[in-house]
Amino acid sequence: MSGASRTVPERLLVPALAVAALALTAASVGIGYAPLDLTAAITDAWAGRNTPEALVLLELRLPRAILGLLVGMSLGLAGAAMQGLLRNPLAEPGIVGISGAAALGAVLVFYFGTNLTQLTLPLGGIAGAALATIVLFALAGRGAGTTTLILAGVAINAFAGSATALALNLAPNPYAALEVVFWLMGSLADRSLAHVWLAAPLMAIGWLALLAAAPGLDALTLGEDTATSLGFRLSSLRLWVITGSALAVGTAVAVTGAIGFVGLVVPHLLRRLVGSRPGALLLPSAFGGGVMVLAADIAVRTSGIRPELKLGVVTSIVGAPFLFHLIWRLRRRMT
Amino acid sequence: MAVSAGFRAALAGAVLVPVALSAALAGAPDGRPARIVSLNLCTDELALRLADPDRLVSVTWLSQDPRNGNLAEAARRHRANHGLVEEILPLAPDLVVAGRYTTRHAVAMLKRAGIRVVEFDIPKDLTGVKAQIVDFAAAIGEPARGRALVAQMDAELARLALSDPRAAVPRAFVLRPNGFTPGRGSLVDDVLTAAGFDNLGASLDLGAYAQVPLERVVLERADALIVDTEPDGPPSLATAVLTHPILRALSPRPRLISIPSRLWTCAGPSVVAAIARLRSAAADLQKGGRP
């Protein structure tokens, strides 16, 4: 089912997905809530003139598009890496509770923080994500079955979700209690360039850590013992994936809320194109994640439903059937 | 379900009626309510301004926070309530004043217990604000104080400088948390017009209270953005829209004008202060001319 059905040559897959992601980024810049003369906006922005058109382009449209790309890449990449490490196609940051815990960390910092530095917001998300990943590995690490993994995810998700709701209810701002939807469903609305500068470097470090795990993940498909005999240390491989996922997912959730299912759908669709090598799946999944989040964000803005849908609504409607399909397949394999 | 509801009503009646009766018996000799309880931020302010302090038993906890209430200092001298029947009954009120849209369950139960409850709607314009003050004063048995307060508001409004009729009317957006903007048929719209602004939320026909995308706000080239929040409040995503970097990047035009929301959240006498601030801002803008 997997290795034989390679339809796209591998060396074309990554460039094709990268081009698609960049094209959608450009399309996202062209879409908005008010007619914008893009030529005038670009000319003004290039000449450094602070016209309303230039500002809408630079301060609203670009941050939204770039964040969509970066967050999608982070979620796709982290999903692919975790699935490789746990050797389970259901290991996805949202399903196993890492996104939810990151949202809790970000909420605690955002609503109660003492504004020490802007960096505390992503750091809160990263701390939440790291903590959840460590708990997940403690509960469902090495060789645990799908059931244990999913149950651990259910437990982490339930705790993080209710603790987030509790924190928002206790927050001093009266609007906070209504904002749980943003943190659990995610949105790119009205984000600013400041969020991009804040998130991009931390995400990039996370990506590098995850990509560095690629050879180890490939070796792991041969079994833990074989991987060890090939010279890969499992503990350091785990550390790379945990650190990378925490940085990428934690930062993404801190700036846009938790957007579900991206890390599940994208690797699932691309796996059959790269064969059963988790290492080779990483980069395609990153660009595929960017494509999915950007497409979802274009959909919420063009659907005409107001107030704007949260991104997680769209990604979950697309993603949940994939989850059903995966569970169905796993069930058949077990019986 | 019906049984348990009926049972609860009967139980509540059994407990409530004696309390209510004793309250009615203890009523003031001169016919004015002597134990007033207010269940709404806006009725709190009117009660604090118009009723004798010793006749006002309790106001909401909201009014005691200076971020919400204009008379927080005075409100703290009264017992706080959270709009719960269990808190209000032991206070044995002979008049409960409430908003039309808040604490609905408490209002229904208090009425069933035979307590006099007067509800106040949200006025849609300045005329309605003044009429409501007169009605409120009549309900608490202080009609003269109501008329005096309205006369004082009229005098303050008359003292405000008139805007220059020859200069162009500045166009303004009001931005509230979550990017909402009040449109036609809202008190804020009337306040803006009275202050000499053209409310873009109304002229763009976005509905009475609609979310306006930040892009639209920027590209509409408004002369002023009236940001309806305290600059130093606790953080939330709802208020983050009001401090988006693009609004600062746009300045000086549109000019950012901050009006604390407590001045016009309630359709009370404080809207005069909002009009005063806005009118001087409008005059400034007219002097500066349009680009």
TrEMBL record, chain A:
Keyword Transport part of the UniProt annotation: yes
Gene Ontology terms, MF aspect: transmembrane transporter activity
Protein known as: Iron complex transport system permease protein
Similarity field: Belongs to the binding-protein-dependent transport system permease family. FecCD subfamily.
GO biological process assignments: siderophore-iron import into cell
Location(s), subcellular: Cell membrane
Domain of life: Bacteria
Gene Ontology CC, one term: plasma membrane
InterPro entries for this protein: ABC_BtuC-like (IPR037294), ABC_transptr_permease_BtuC (IPR000522)
Membrane-topology annotation of the record: Multi-pass membrane protein
UniProtKB/TrEMBL annotation, chain B:
UniProt protein name: Iron complex transport system substrate-binding protein
One Pfam family hit: Peripla_BP_2
Record's keyword terms, sorted: Signal
Protein species of origin: Enterovirga rhinocerotis
InterPro entries xrefs: ABC_Transporter_SBP (IPR050902), ABC_transptr_periplasmic_BD (IPR002491)
Origin: domain of life: Bacteria
Domain Fe/B12 periplasmic-binding: 35-289
Signal peptide region: 1-28
